[in-house]
Amino acid sequence: MSPRARLPMTFYLTEYLRQHILTKGDNNEMDDVSLYPPGRNTVLRSEIRGIVHGYVPFLGWAVIAPREMIERASELLARN
Predict the structure, then answer these.
(1) What is the pTM of this model?
(2) Looking at the domain assignment, is residue 67 inside a domain?
(3) Domain residues for 65?
(4) pLDDT tens-digit map of 8-58
(5) Closest among 79, 19, 74, 73 to 46, alpha carbons compared
């Protein structure tokens, strides 16, 4: 997982070039190169942690929404 990432993320595999993989988020129009470590345009097969065999739409929001609210509340309190 990238040091920038706070949560594990699920991506679609868009290209598989031996051990180098290009990914794309399921709701993104562009690939995920901007999320990779600096200077890289693929992730390595060894960095893949698992395979998704199904999904529950919007379930990720149950984790993301509370974190977003806490961060925004912290920012507002810091301003005052």
Answers:
(1) 0.44
(2) yes
(3) 11-79
(4) 555 555 656 677 887 777 777 888 888 888 898 888 888 877 777 777 778
(5) 19
4 in any annotated domain: no
Total number of domains in the chain: 1
Contact predicate 35/2, CB 8 Å? yes
For residues 57 and 55, what is the distance between their CA atoms, to the nearest angstrom? 6
State the sign of the Cα–Cα–Cα–Cα dihedral 6, 48, 15, 17. Answer: positive
Residue whose tokens read 């598989």: 16
Q: For residue 5, tell me if it sits in a domain.
A: no
- From CA 38, how far away is CA 2, in angstroms rounded? 10
3-state secondary structure of 5: coil
- Is residue 1 in a domain? no
Supply φ then ψ for residue 51, to 5 degrees: -125, 135
